[in-house]
Design brief:
single chain, alpha+beta, two-stranded antiparallel sheet, 2 helices
């Protein structure tokens, strides 16, 4: 409204900018923000999927006919 008041007072301004619908701009910003959050979430999930289990210690116990062995190592 300040622009309309200034125009009504005879000041030099472009009142066409005051009548522009800003809801489209807000919607674009909200959608862009949600899209960025989704992309970052997907990238983080893929990173954890591929690198989350790398290098964790593990042990496997194997039973043979007459003995038992435990292999200790790290995941690939």
């Amino acid at each position: 409204m300040p622009c309309n008041q200034n125009c009504e007072q005879g000041r030099k301004c472009d009142c066409a900018d005051c009548n522009v619908d800003r809801s489209v701009d807000r919607a674009t910003v909200v959608i862009a923000t949600l899209l960025v959050i989704c992309i970052l979430s997907i990238c983080l999930g893929l990173y954890k999927l591929y690198n989350g289990n790398k290098g964790q210690e593990c042990q496997i116990e194997v039973q043979f006919n007459d003995s038992k062995a435990t292999y200790i190592g790290k995941t690939v």
